[in-house]
Every structure is written in C-alpha cells, then in structure tokens.
Request: fold
Amino acid sequence: MTHTTTATTPTTAGQAAGHHTAGRRPGTATVLRWETAKLAAQARARYLLLGCLIAPPVIVAVFTGQQPPSDTIYGRHIHASGFADALLILAFAHQWLFPLLASLVAGDIFANEDGHGTWKTILTRSASRGQVFAAKTLTAVAFNLVALVVLAASTIAGSLLIVGTRPLPGLSGQLIPAGTALPLVAAAWATAIPPLLGFTALALLLSVLSQNPTVGVATPVVLGFVMQLLSTLGGLDLARRLLLTTGFEAWHGLFTATRFTGPISQAGAVAAGWTAICLVIGYLALRRRDITGG
Amino acid sequence: MNPIRTRVLGPTAAILAVAAIFAATAGRGGQDITRPRLEHAIAPTFANLYVQRAAILGEHDVTVASIGASATCDRGGPKVPDVGAGPNWICMITFTDDHGQRQEGKFEVQAHADATYVAGGPSKLVGLATITDTHHNDVTNPTFEFDGAFDPDS
Reply:
C-alpha cells in the first residue's frame, strides 16, 4: 500500500507545490483548482452545459405545435401555461435525464485517471488521497449543480417566453396566479437537488470502484431506470420511499391547494443517506487501492 | 486480500445489502394510495374544475359551495381491496350541476404509485373534451379529464 508514503513525504520542489512555500503540502483548494481546470478542458463538460442551455427552449418550441402528451403529469396543460411546460420538462427529466446529468462528469472523474494511467502522477504531487477525493467530489458536485441551474433557468425562461405566463392549473383543480406559480416552479426544480446529489455520489462511487469511465457513467443511468421501474410497481410503499428516484417527484405537493412537503423532506433524508454511504465507501476504496500495481 | 476477490466480493455484498434492505421494507409502512385519500382529493378538485367549466360557458352563479361535490371511490369491484395504484379505480361523484340538478357521475380514475391520479369525467354530465366558450371559441373542457395529487402521508 502506498497511500502513507505519498502523504508523509513533503515536497520541496516541483510544479505541484505551486506557489506554496517549500516543504508544505498543497491545500485542498489547490487540488480543487487542478480538478476544475481539468474539467473545464473537457469537451463533454462544455457540450453538456451548452445542451442544458439550448435544448429546453427547442423542446418547448416543438411542443407548441403538438398534441399535448397527456400521459405525463402537466402534459395536458402545455398550451395553457408556460409554467406547465416547465413542470412537464421537469417530470420528463426525472425519468432519465437527471441520472445521466449526474453521472456524465461524476462517473468519469475518478475512472479517467485509470483510463489515462495518471494516478501515479497525481499522487506523487504530494497531495493526499483524501485531498484528491475531496477535490474531485467537490468538482463533480459543483458542476452538476451548475448544470441543473442552467437547465432549470433555461427551461423556465424558455417556457414562459414561448408559451406565456397565464395562470398554472394546480393539482387540486385550482388556478395558481403567475406571481405565485413562478417561485413554486423554481422550488419544484430545486427539489431535484437532493436526489441529483445522491446520483452524483453513486456515480462517484462507481467511478472509483469500476476504474472504468463507461461503467461509471452508464451504471447510474441503468440503476435510475431500474429504480424508476420499481417505483411504478404497486405495493412497495416504504421501500419505494427509499429509492433515490422517488425524490424527483416530491414536488407534486407544492401544487395542491393544501401544500404538503413531507415527501420533500423524506427525499432529502433518503438522498443524504445514499450520498453519505456512497462517499464513505468510495473514499475507503480509494484509500485502500494499490496504485503502484497500475 | 486477493484484489480480484475484493473487487468481486465488495460489489456483491453491496448489492445483497441493498436487496435485503429493499426486501425488508417492501410493503411495510402502510399504503400510500388509499380510498379516503383519493376521495378527499378528487371531490374538491372536481368542484374547482366545474367552476372553471361554468365560467368558460358564461355561467357565473356556479361556486364550489353550490356544487357541493362528494366522492365515493372503489377499486376493481367488491373483491379487490380499495388500496394501491392501478387503472381500475372508479369514483362516483355526487354534485349539483349548473342547472341546479343533483347528479351522480361515474369517473374512471387511474391512480399512480406516486400519489397522483388521472380522472376522466362522464361526457353525459360534463360534456365533451372541448366546449365552446362565450366568444364561440373551442376550448379544452377542464372537467373532461384531469390530473390531481394527494399527500401519501395525510
């Protein structure tokens, strides 16, 4: 095992130390800057953000000429109010897009070091494995949150500009005026954050364990599908609430006449549990790994 | 430990642990979709939408109070327990229509596992999918088919 040797040998030279004084290990902030720079250089990250920005208005524009997709919640109201379009896209996104969004960067961020054979380079830069793990985790989480914010803002703005701001039909037959609907729709998108972080942690874990970017990216998507499928089955009840994907539909309670937020707080607790377990296992696995073996 | 054994045993143990937790909790903790929850959700929802329908038709003296809607729901006939998601829920909604007549309508309800539902109204009582408003435009009939949600913890 090599993890103690790299951690205890202070570096006195080399680019890794950056502008730190000789003999000191770089701070996690320095490692974070490397990771951010590496991510920013990736074409996939830029295209993902660009897609989050451009795709929603295009989808809304395509919807305007179509029969409403009334088998999905809010589908039947897409011509009535732009707020309904924003919620329909949220409902679509939770079926497959969010797990993909969460894993596209997170599932790759550890495994690409294996793919390129660059673990030794990183760990001889006198940063501890804990620092590398923290920096990579923070980078992936921050990127996924930025992607979600871009997607939400683009969807809401595009829907309201293209379809309009007429009152939103609620889920108790009431009409929600635009002034109330806008913060509610934004809050509905924000409820996707906890399960998205859960999927991010899952992708990070699989990225560490599999050492294979394809597995790290694809497996959370497949698991998302499986959870989605399980959640449509009847009779699961408590088990259903432990699924990560259940949190993506917790926003329904914001749009009834008497609002209920129980599912949102439950989803937060469930996602926190998934996140904690995945990150702890991932960290331990990375610490124990024998990097010298390649 | 042998690295290959670690790489096989770890994920297998994780999958087994998740499956065990899932199996232990499946079906526990009470039903999410129940008859009282559906009844309490669908009757006021229908009343709200019937008021909107009346406003489209230019009937402004119809209010939620004047409709006085109440619902009795059943899933799949007498032999099926009235709980759980499924397309075979029927809700009988009793209400006062826009002519002051007491009516009972049979609504076909699809209850989803996520505590939302889709209800289809009887066109004999609520009209067709589109209705003509006071300006002779065809608009969607809000009571013909509608979505709703209820609190699975209520």
Notes: The helical segments of chain B are 3-25, 35-56, 64-67, 123-126. Chain B has a mean pLDDT of 89.
